[in-house]
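REQUEST FORM: STRUCTURE PREDICTION
Request ID: SP-0412
Submitted by: Lab K.M.
Chain count: 1
Length (residues): 434
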Amino acid sequence: MTPARLLGRLPRGYRPLLAARGPFRRLLPALAVSDLGDGMSVVAVAWLALQLAPPGAPGLFVGAAVAVHVLPGALGALLLGRWLRGLPAARLIRADAWTRAVFLGCVPLGWALGVLDPALYLALLAGSSLLHAWGGSAKYALVAETLPGEQRLAANALLSTSASVSTVVGPVLAGVLAAAVAPAWLIGLDALSFAVLAVRAGRLGAPDRPSPDRDRVARAPAADAPAADAPSGEGPRVLRARPELFGLLAMTWLFNLCYGPVEVALPLFVGEELHAGPGLLGLYWAAFGTGAVAGALFAGALRRLPLWPVLLGIVAGHGLAMLPFGLHAPAAVPLAGFALAGVIYGPYNALAFTLFQNLTPPAALTAVLAFRSAVLLAASPVGAALGGPLTTALGPPAVLAGAGLAMLATAAVATALRARRTKPAAEPRAYGRA
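STATUS: Completed
RESULT:
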């Protein structure tokens, strides 16, 4: 099948995005490669932590490893804004990619030399995440810099889909390779994937000059936003001026906090409750990722979605899908629930980022998204850190099902708070101007 025919078979929302040879399309394959590397690390980081854990504290050390793999990115977003907030998106992507490549590349090196102890492992994981909030936000800032408003939901959906595909292929690949090589070498492959991204971002060059229509779409303020733009880098001020974004950020933080214990409890659930190895752990993550791919692609193909009903439904539905972990049923039952959780979760990030792109002044977008990443990066690691002692005290099934109950409570509280507000004239939708 020719590329033109293949493009013609895609949903209409994706066709103009993939037909244009702009910076986003040129960088997308390298972003997908780095996502695949991180997908492998979902299994490799936790499994290597289990091998390095001090005697008698596997849950605590796995929780610490998962936390430090992402938590320093929040500090980097808050402390390095003075130097990084004015950089173009492509430079931020490159800086984060090289940082990740160097620090993660030292993990297999330390393993080969026999010097990789628990403290060094945590230090290398921490260093690798220092700029990751900026690199992650820069991907979505690149969408806003180079694409018109009507293509942003589809572009955001492709980025979310790439991350979801990585949780399908990456863990399965890691589970297969872990039977032949140590998990430290899998982390080395993650480092190599970010080296590929760094080289590609360095060759990207300046963004294409926007057309007059694109420039008008990018610079027009949202209909319900304050008239005055906030200065670049003042993420909290922008969020205070836009209650819709502040409320979404607060709900997402709680959603991620509830999810944090899952990353600790799931490896222990597979290893201790099911008495299985990394292959089955990879299958669980692959089931979640397959569902998330389907959900994200579906969202990107749609033209309009009511924002808050969908987001509240995602949080509640994800919580319901986690409850089978507490039933002590055969492994296939929670596996099916985890796959359904992925389907439900799939559209969440694409919808959330589209709203941020539409309601944030262009000059402040990278800094606002970095601040958003900093706030959210603190949620899942805190949940993971809590997941260690909770899993030790209650057991993996109770923690996994409890995470689902906490998500249901989050959705209920958010729904109640929304109901107390004056009903807007029109429900914001994730397309064009929200």
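NOTES: Confidence is low (pLDDT under 50) at residues 208-233, 430-434.
Reviewed by: T.R.
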